[in-house]
Amino acid sequence: MAAAGRRGKRLAAREAQAQTPAAMSDTLLDVQGLTCPLPVLKANKALRALPPGARLTVVATDPASVKDFQAYAKETGHALVAFSEDKGIFRFTLKKGEEPAA
Fold this sequence. Notes:
This protein is of the alpha+beta class. The protein has three helices and four strands, in the order H-E-H-E-H-E-E. 39% of the residues lie in helices and 25% in strands. A four-stranded mixed β-sheet has the order 1-2-4-3, sandwiched between helices.
């Protein structure tokens, strides 16, 4: 039953994201309910599939993800362009950095 509730939250988040014109080019990753280090690991995997300059918005519930995403951005060269928290739900927007030269 809990899994169905999470799916409903994810669908609602995606629908809300789709209603914002500027957000149409963003990718949304819902990692609510996952704990460290999974939110950052899943975000890293999602960013690898995106072109440089693309934005990834991550929705998480793990309070440790705040420091994790700050450190991740600093270490990888991706930019943490936005962060917010509302009632224990954290939203991070990362902008993928340039690919390293081969």
